[in-house]
Amino acid sequence: MIQRNQFALLLSGGGARAAYQVGVLKAITELLPRNHPIPFPVICGTSAGAINATAMACFASCYHLGVRKLEWVWKNFHTEQVYQSHLLPVFGHLLGNQLQNWRSDQVPRHPSSLLNNQPLRELLHQTLDFSRIDRNILRRQLRAICVTASSYAHKESFSFFQGASDLEPWHRAQRRGVKATLYTEHLMASAAIPLVFPTIRLHEDYFGDGSIHQLSPLSAPIHLGAERILVVGVEQPQSAPNIKSGHPSSAMIAGHLLDTIFADTLHSDLERLYRINHTLSLLSHKERQQTQLKRVECLVINPTVNLNAIASDYYQSLPMGIRALMKLLGIKPDKESSLLSYLLFEGAFCQQLINIGYRDGVNRRDEIRQFLEL
């Protein structure tokens, strides 16, 4: 029988698309009493999903309150709360990146990036009380919170986790789990989309978005004891390929790369998990014990609609500086682009994604209830 502390929530990365996850979490509130603690004591997240995961860990004692707080932030978002978006700061940042290339190597440099996300750091400082995590762990309302980032030096996926005292670090091929007391810089590192946002220095190493080297997204929750994992992703349905549009633009290629980083490794990991589960089902109890493998069940929820098309409808809501930058990158309001849906941190767009996530969660309510044994 699965114990309550063996249930886990895994939130994947996806920039502004992560607002969808809030809608799914909101749908689950309707399955729980108002003062109920979080139904998945193990919480793992990557990139923007890491921020959502940590926010939920801070409010593990009251799931309803955590979701309401998270929804309020997302639906009142403005782009300038995540990265500098006015005309002069945007192009001043790009110019500064170019000018520092002429400096001597002995002169300290700031990390190069397309955008400056210092406003996000300030927002996290204001909205998250990391001290609540330890209190929730001591009260056994939370078993572990895990945030994944990618090391540029080691070329490995680092899962920084804060949890119960019996949880041990791990080290496998190209991935490791490290005990840590989480704070803002862990989230900044996990959400540092390559080339878009600057790298972050942690523990004498430089880190970027957790999805880059994350070959096994399910590894962290499994190492933390999970046997049943609810996965909320942000991958939209595949559309029919358009082979008549000519060569893809640089913006389309950038969007394709982000789609690959945020989704493809999860697909392969789920496929591997299903094969292991099937193999275990063919073995006797004694044979299963000898393999040292365990059956892990997953329920995956992804958007049922095209998020790129929705993002195109909100193109004009972007600040002027970002619209000018988007045009330089070849992103236009009449053309869909995955890149736009990752960077469009505007309340109206985020609210739309929350509504879609809520609807998808409600449509799968019975499935979720049975999976979480609520």
Low-confidence stretches: none
* Gyration radius, rounded: 21 Å
Name the average pLDDT.
88
Give me the strand/helix succession: EHEHHHHHEEEEHEEHEHHEHHHHH
| Main pleated-sheet profile | 10 strands, mixed
What is the helix content? 40-55%
Instruction: Give the class-level CATH name.
Output: Alpha Beta
CATH topology title: Cytosolic phospholipase A2 catalytic domain
What spatial form do the alpha-carbon principal axes imply?
globular
Strand content: 5-15%
- The strand count comes to 10
Separation, N- and C-terminal Cα atoms: 14 Å
**Architecture per CATH nomenclature, i.e. the level-2 architecture:** 3-Layer(aba) Sandwich
SSE class: alpha/beta
Topology:
Layout: E1 7-11, H1 19-29, E2 42-46, H2 48-58, H3 63-75, H4 87-99, H5 118-127, H6 131-138, E3 144-151, E4 156-163, E5 170-172, E6 175-179, H7 184-190, E7 200-202, E8 205-209, H8 219-223, E9 228-232, H9 250-281, H10 285-291, E10 297-301, H11 307-313, H12 320-328, H13 338-343, H14 347-363, H15 365-372
Helix pairs in contact: 1-3, 1-14, 2-3, 4-12
Organism: Saliniradius amylolyticus
Motif (GXSXG): 45-49
GO molecular function: hydrolase activity
Key descriptive features of the protein:
374 residues, alpha/beta, Cytosolic phospholipase A2 catalytic domain, 10 strands, hydrolase, PNPLA domain-containing protein, lipid metabolism, hydrolase activity, NTE
Describe the fold and architecture.
Helix content is about 45%, strand content about 15%. The protein is an alpha/beta fold. The protein has a single domain, classed as Cytosolic phospholipase A2 catalytic domain, CATH 3.40.1090. Helix 1 (about 20-30) packs antiparallel against helix 3 and helix 2 (about 50-60) packs across helix 3 (about 65-75). The longest helix is centred in the C-terminal third of the chain and has 32 residues, at about 250-280.
